[in-house]
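Q: For a teaching session next week I want to show students how multiple molecules come together into a single three-dimensional assembly. I've collected the sequence lines for a complex. Could you give me the predicted structure tokens for the whole thing so I can convert them for display?
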Amino acid sequence: MKKLKIIWDAIIPNNPVLIISIGLCSTIAVSNSVQSALLMTFAFALVQIPSNVIVSSIRKITPNEIRVPIFVTVIAAFTTIAALISEAYFNAIYQIIKLYILLVVVNCIIIGRAEAYAYHNGIFDSFLDGVGNTIGYGLVLLAIAIVREFIGKGSLAGIQLMPDSYQPMLLMVLPPAGFIMIGILTGAIETYLRNKEGKR
Amino acid sequence: MSYVENLLKIFVSSTIINNIILIQFLGLCSYIGLTDSLTNSIGMSFAVIFVTVSSSILAWMIDNWILIPTGLQPALQITAFILVIGSFVGLVEIYIKKASPNLYKAMGIYLPLIATNCLILGATFINSMNKYDFVESIVSGFGIAFGYAIAMLLLAGIRERLRNSDVPSFFKGKAIAFMISGILSLAFLGFSGMIK
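A: Of course. Below is the structure for the complete assembly, covering every listed component.
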């Protein structure tokens, strides 16, 4: 039960994107179609979980002064693996979001978890924390992507759902809607937190 | 098309049409975090312009003189770029601290922030993906950083005005910055298609 709480903490109470608001770049950029969001989450999982495990397993022999370059090297190695796998198996989508998959290496969530969690905790706990953060990140990405693709194209993951007479609102798949969606979500979360504090 | 025309095209395209923040969404952390005050965003913009141009040069050299001839580009590009840029920013920081304490005071606090800024690394990847030559890489790096400066100053100016205006309580804080960026992004979207 206690172990499950590690995963749960990362999904809702400490959601990396919505509550701590880090890792926004890729969230906004790839959330215009469900397929891109899924591939991005897949690549993110391939980097976040193993890098947490490795950082945690070498934490006793990592000198404190040069820990950040070591984290970055570990993360860069897994990002290369994730990019090569995505290129080999999902080439069509990879070509569209290539830049953002390469830039997983400087994703604040991954470096942040290595520094704040994996460096101080056991291997299995770090593994669970990685899983939780991946789910937390993926859920937000997918939620935004579903709304944007459904309104903007009338389809989900490339499958046409709305009838032909549906006039798609093209703006939703273009860059501005990414900012506006994140703005509305941040506003909702901040209002919720303010009200919760006010009640106490 | 002459060479200079081509350079101009790359500059306009990377500054306005593919504005790094408003259209490509890179470097959002500092964009939202530092635009509270106009002074901060000017300082950050200068630091970014300087570091982006120098890392474009550095990354081009690594890419074309070491990684491509040895055939290691697909496997080692990410690692090489991030380590080189990270240590380069560290070196610059030490050098400026020693050589010009005044400049360090003005720029110093932003340099560590830049090391992990996805914009710098993104610019080098964009150069490498488009297979730009040496001069083109410099122009594109400068254009990207200049576009960043434009977006920073726009948002910082608007946010200074917002301080005295009545924002709906739902959008108070960061949310209004995102909504404004959305509208700015819409304006920049109007430039798309300017270059075929």
